[in-house]
Design goal:
The complex is a heterodimer of chains A (343) and B (307).
Chain A lengths: L1 H4 L1 E14 L2 E14 L3 E5 L6 H8 L8 E10 L2 E2 L5 H7 L4 E4 L13 H12 L4 H14 L5 H5 L8 H13 L5 E5 L7 H18 L2 E6 L2 H7 L2 E6 L2 E7 H6 L4 H8 L40 H5 L5 E4 L2 E3 L2 H5 L16
Helix pairs in contact in A: 4-5, 5-7, 7-8
Chain B lengths: L1 H28 L4 H6 L5 H11 L5 H13 L13 H37 L4 H15 L2 H15 L11 H31 L2 H8 L4 H29 L3 H6 L5 H10 L3 H29 L7
Helix pairs in contact in B: 1-13, 5-6, 5-8, 5-10, 6-8, 7-8, 8-10, 9-10, 10-13, 12-13
The chains are: A alpha/beta (343), B mainly alpha (307).
């Protein structure tokens, strides 16, 4: 019972679809996961795998798109966010659940000062007057490592570098001490040197606040650095779920293996040794009937083409969606992944 | 910023010189001789020749141009061939105030109407109201001013007898001309506001504002509108500049004695000195308004690099 109380977010069978002229696009298709207080969960996947749409669905931020949550529950501290009124969602956003976006260059309003963009959230969610909200905003700026915060607070986004702007985004996100922080590719648009700084800042803030963190990325390196558990998404579905250590130690899904094999390492000395996953992500309008990964999978058998595998609990909370694991239960050998020039 | 303002003002000098040259040459290239016009229909060649000499029309063109410029710089734009009144006096003592008044009222109406229609349309995109309003705006954009003015006169003055047909000064005389100018201006502003607002509403920073828990009103009026209106400022400025230089057709239809009607009257009366002076003043006003718009644009748009 005690453990249940610590669950911050529990997503159950979430389905989000976009309705376009070409038909229904199932961006998030039956996704479930949960995250406890103090835990950080990584969601990893290629572009179009539905990871960002999952996060936007949690905050119900699909406004202005044709996207709609069509099924499932999003339980935040036991309350289902999908049933909340827009008004009630507004009191949650930026206050109890916050989000950091991918593009720091365009995610800040160009016509409003940095300080006001932070103070605005504080005023919106806490009963504070302009002056003390502004003072808090300056404190937040120095908290995320921005030098001369009083001066910076009066500046506009164009006067700051990309890394600085992402720090401001973080300051906005954490200004009301949220219980859940969602970071959607927070470092993708930044230089490598800045990436490490931003990641360690996010990690530090999470440890200090004890809140839950959802880290969305396509970069397994980011996951390794910041997360406890990881969900691998492919075509709107979770294909594997494991603790970070286990995932890197022994990936169970062929797609995860492929991903891990395609990370260049120090031993990779030429392009020949770099593995790639053959083929392309299937079009979301024409998803395969069977396993979504079957067309690209080197282990695929007949059953994979015909039936969608269930998400199988191997042991503990180790989940994988693969027929090979289900029917044979044996370890798949990694060497089926071929180098591009080797075959 | 100061450097920008100074540089922008300096840029107007060559433009104004060009304008003065064009205005000057235009008069001289026009068929018909101003001396003949001034001397009257019955004048014989000798009288016309005396008149030409008096007006300096026998001097080389370059000399005439420099005389025109140096007099203009001292605020002397000559005297009307028809009324004998100084051009500067005619414009600034009688006509300019009326046109300025009309331009302000017309622009205000256009801005208020245009913004309301544009914002409502954008926030209710693709609704029946949006389609209806944009259709109305398209009409407003397509209907020529003189026709709209006549329609308004027929309905409100002739049929209902509510408002006077002509003149300027009384409040009820101002309503129809203001509406005429306001409606066509509003149509452009409405369409631009709608398009810009929709564009801005799909930007990343609007999603950020929503992620901060901002309500729809704050999202639109605080976060979106500021950014959406930056290009609209330019259009409003140009419209105001256009109206300030005289709404020739509207002023003529409603018999308002502003600068537009002055230009019209001078042309029909072949009052070359008056045409020359008025067109020059009007051009200077337009260039000045444009410079002010540019400077305002820089002040409002924080993203524009100051260098």
């Amino acid at each position: 019972m005690e453990k249940d109380k610590d669950i911050v977010l529990q997503v159950e069978n979430l389905q989000t679809s976009f309705f376009t002229e070409d038909g229904e696009l199932k961006a998030v298709n039956d996704v479930s996961f949960s995250i406890e207080k103090g835990q950080s969960l990584g969601i990893v996947g290629e572009s179009g795998s539905g990871k960002s749409i999952t996060s936007l669905s949690i905050l119900r931020l699909l406004t202005g798109t044709t996207g709609k949550i069509i099924g499932g529950k999003i339980l935040f501290k036991g309350e289902d966010l999908t049933t909340f009124s827009e008004k009630k969602m507004q009191s949650i956003r930026g206050n109890r659940i916050s989000m950091i976006f991918q593009e720091p260059m365009t995610s800040l309003n160009p016509t409003i000062t940095i300080g006001e963009q932070i103070a605005e959230v504080i005023r919106g969610h806490q009963k504070k007057d302009r002056k003390s909200a502004w003072e808090d905003a300056v404190k937040m700026l120095s908290g995320v490592g921005i030098p001369e915060p009083e001066k910076r607070a009066k500046q506009y986004p164009f006067q700051l570098s990309g890394g600085m702007r992402q720090r401001v985004m973080i300051a906005i996100a954490i200004s009301c001490q949220p219980e859940l922080l969602i970071a959607d590719e927070p470092t993708t648009a930044l230089d490598v040197t800045i990436q490490a700084q931003i990641l360690s800042l996010i990690k530090k803030i999470q440890r200090r606040s004890g809140g839950a963190l959802v880290m969305i990325t396509h970069d397994l390196g980011v996951i390794a650095e910041t997360c406890d558990a990881v969900a691998v998404m492919y075509c709107g579905k979770i294909v594997e779920y494991a603790s970070v250590a286990e995932l890197f130690e022994s990936p169970k899904h062929p797609y995860t293996m492929g991903l891990l094999n395609s990370i260049p390492s120090h031993e990779t000395d030429s392009e020949e040794d770099l593995y790639i996953i053959d083929g392309q992500v299937p079009s979301p309008y024409e998803l395969p009937n069977g396993c979504l990964f079957a067309p690209r999978c080197p282990y695929a058998k007949e059953i994979c083409q015909n039936a969608l595998p269930e998400l199988l609990n191997l042991y503990g909370n180790r989940l994988v969606r693969c027929h090979m694991q289900q029917t044979e239960g044996r370890e798949l050998e990694h060497d089926r992944w071929k180098s591009p020039s080797g075959s | 910023m100061l450097i920008f303002i100074v540089r922008r003002l300096l840029q107007t000098i060559p433009v104004l010189l060009g304008v003065s040259l064009v205005v000057f040459l235009m008069i001289h290239l026009m068929p018909g001789c101003p001396a003949r016009a001034m001397a009257g229909e019955a004048a014989d060649p000798a009288q016309i020749e005396i008149m030409r000499e008096q007006m300096g029309l026998n001097d080389p063109v370059l000399v005439q141009y420099f005389r025109f410029i140096s007099r203009a710089l001292t605020g002397d734009l000559g005297t009307s061939v028809v009324s004998g009144r100084s051009v500067v006096d005619e414009i600034f003592e009688a006509r300019f105030a009326i046109t300025f008044h009309l331009a302000i009222l017309g622009t205000l109406t256009a801005v208020v109407l245009g913004l309301i229609i544009g914002i409502v349309s954008a926030t209710m995109k693709d609704s029946f109201l949006d389609v209806l309003l944009m259709l109305v705006a398209l009409f407003g954009l397509s209907i020529p001013n003189f026709w709209l003015a006549i329609l308004l006169i027929i309905e409100f003055s002739v049929n209902r007898g509510l408002l006077p047909i002509v003149g300027w000064g009384e409040l009820n005389q101002m309503i129809l001309p203001t509406l005429t100018l306001g409606i066509s201006g509003a149509a452009i502003i409405a369409r631009m506001t709608r398009a810009n607002l929709l564009d801005v509403l799909s930007q990343d920073y609007i999603r950020t504002a929503r992620a901060k828990g901002a309500g729809e009103l704050i999202v639109i009026y605080k976060h979106a509108l500021r950014n959406a209106l930056i290009p609209v400022i330019t259009v409003v400025g140009l419209q105001f500049g256009g109206l300030l230089t005289g709404a020739i057709i509207t002023e003529t239809v409603f018999a308002i004695n502003g600068m537009g009607r002055l230009i019209m009257q001078s042309i029909t009366q072949r009052d070359v000195i008056m045409i020359q002076g008025t067109v020059l003043v009007v051009s200077i006003l337009f260039v000045a308004v444009n410079a002010i718009v540019d400077i305002t644009y820089r002040l409002v748009n924080k993203r524009v690099d100051l260098n």
